[in-house]
Design brief:
Length: 345
């Protein structure tokens, strides 16, 4: 018997699939706007018409209006009459003159990751990284060979980590019981600079490859913290970690395979005093591996970036800490998709 319209199954639409499949078009439009300085220029000028903005940025007249209006449609710019201006969101996070600026992190996504992600299919088939270290197997040495690329990488890591760093720095009840902290993989020292603003009783040491020393020292001195923060050069793969009451592994564990993760956590355990704490924070996978899409996509990024790294769940991280001897572990949400796992020795 034929069924009437009311009995028909709801019509399905391919809109989501098409939007997802072409999502790179919106992403690249946004990243190109960051690269071209659209948001910086509008922050300086307060608003410009299409002709003036295009002329200032060196954008061809053929593409200018569509480009700027696409940014309006994506919710990244406002347009009043013919004048374009930043939204409250882009003004807050993409004005280089503000401490909340995250543009360097997005610039790294544009100049490094966007191209490397074109090799995802190859990475999935081969299990091999697709970045600067795809031949040598040593991503960080490849990045650090170019001082400017290394500087951008360090700034990017700090900026993209800042929501979690802010949340971590505000844990006063936790920090008041400690006096020293070591940031493992400290980069430009951003975590220590931010942490000591909220917790001035602490002294800190940054541990990273020797190539980070100059930038670290310059940024720490500029923040007026040179007497409270020092740098120790080393390679966490081969060297012992600095001793401190608290060791921080920020966005570090996902870079390593299971055996290397265990070795790193064991080194941290050995460097801590009784009662000391290890803090590991990153986008941990949710325990059911189905809801934290950001963490799962970042784990695919680790496939592209490293020879053997992979993200883990907070529960897996806690089990690892307990395996090497930490007597107490817990996990806490920090910001966005990121959490921290704390182990007490």
């Amino acid at each position: 018997m034929p069924t009437g319209p009311s009995d028909a199954a709801p019509a399905m639409s391919p809109d989501y699939l098409v939007q997802l499949g072409l999502g790179f078009t919106a992403s690249k439009t946004f990243l190109s706007a960051v690269e071209l300085g659209v948001f910086d220029e509008l922050a300086r000028e307060g608003g410009l018409d299409a002709h003036a903005l295009a002329e200032t940025l060196g954008i061809h007249r053929r593409s200018a209006r569509d480009f700027f209006d696409a940014l309006v449609a994506l919710g990244l710019l406002e347009r009043d009459g013919g004048r374009y201006a930043n939204t409250a969101l882009t003004d807050h996070f993409l004005d280089r003159g503000k401490p909340t600026y995250i543009g360097d992190g997005l610039a790294m996504a544009n100049t490094r990751l966007y191209g490397f992600w074109g090799g995802l299919t190859t990475a999935l088939r081969t299990g091999r990284p697709q970045n600067e270290g795809r031949d040598s197997g040593d991503t960080y040495s490849a990045i650090y060979q170019d001082p400017e690329r290394a500087r951008l990488f360090q700034r990017a890591m700090t900026q993209l980590s800042m929501p979690s760093i802010d949340a971590l720095a505000g844990r006063t009840t936790f920090w008041k019981q400690y006096r020293t902290v070591a940031d493992i993989g400290a980069g430009d020292g951003g975590l220590l600079r931010r942490l000591l603003l909220d917790q001035p009783h602490l002294t800190g040491v940054g541990f990273d490859l020797p190539a980070s020393a100059q930038v670290f020292a310059e940024d720490v001195a500029e923040a007026g913290l040179a007497e409270h923060v020092s740098f120790r050069a080393g390679d966490l793969r081969t060297d012992q970690l600095p001793h401190a009451d608290v060791l921080v592994l920020g966005h570090m564990l996902h870079d390593w395979d299971a055996a290397a993760k265990r070795d790193l956590v064991a080194k941290a355990y050995a460097a801590l005093p009784d009662g000391g704490a290890l803090v590991a924070f990153e986008s941990f996978l949710d325990d059911d591996r189905r809801t934290n899409a950001t963490a799962l996509l970042l784990s695919l990024n680790v496939l592209i970036e490293t020879p053997g790294g992979a993200a883990c769940t907070a529960a897996e991280c806690r089990a690892l800490l307990e395996e090497v001897g930490f007597r107490e572990t817990r996990s806490e949400h920090l910001a966005g998709p990121e959490s921290m796992v704390v182990g007490i020795k």
